[in-house]
Write a structure and sequence with these properties.
Layout (H helix, E strand, L loop, with lengths): L1 E7 L5 H15 L3 E7 L4 H10 L6 E11 L2 H13 L4 E6 L7 H6 L2 E4 L7 H19 L8
Parallel strand pairs: 1-2, 1-4, 3-4, 3-5
Helix pairs in contact: 1-5, 3-5
């Protein structure tokens, strides 16, 4: 399995970027991971770019405030089920400032809400990468989750 993170926006905050790289490297010890950062544009162009990066067999998770909230354990169960299902790629999408087009939401296999709060996109990347790493540490029974 491979994890693809597709996000919209800039990558200008070096402190956040370094932390995202750290968690990505931790994830990579268990599951190959790739980031695709798409420049901000209008919602239609952003969504077209997102869909161009999604393959037909991908399991697509779109982050959206209207999605389902998951605890860390529920997220770990979710990721583990994707691993057991032998999904080739699980793709997490973080849309632009105005979300994603309806076409992307319709393609989604799951819509996930990190929080009802609104966060800057670069901070979402950090929260997302840390959350996925934490879920993997739960699956692998590593001590990180309770450290």
């Amino acid at each position: 399995m491979k994890i693809i993170f597709i996000t919209i926006g800039k990558d200008t905050d070096k402190n956040l970027a370094e932390s995202v790289i750290d968690y990505t490297n931790r994830i990579n010890r268990h599951i190959k991971t790739e980031w695709k950062i798409i420049p901000s544009s209008d919602i239609k162009k952003e969504s077209e770019s997102i869909l161009k990066n999604i393959e037909s067999g991908d399991y697509l998770v779109v982050l959206d405030e209207r999605g389902k909230s998951l605890s860390t354990i529920e997220l770990a169960d979710f990721v583990e089920k994707r691993m057991i299902a032998s999904d080739k790629r699980i793709v997490f999408v973080v849309g632009g400032a105005y979300g994603v087009d309806e076409e992307v939401l319709q393609r989604a296999n799951f819509i996930w809400s990190l929080s009802k709060l609104t966060f800057p996109h670069q901070l979402v990347r950090l929260i997302l990468s840390e959350s996925i790493y934490r879920a993997i540490s739960v699956i692998k029974k590593e001590p990180y989750h309770h450290s």
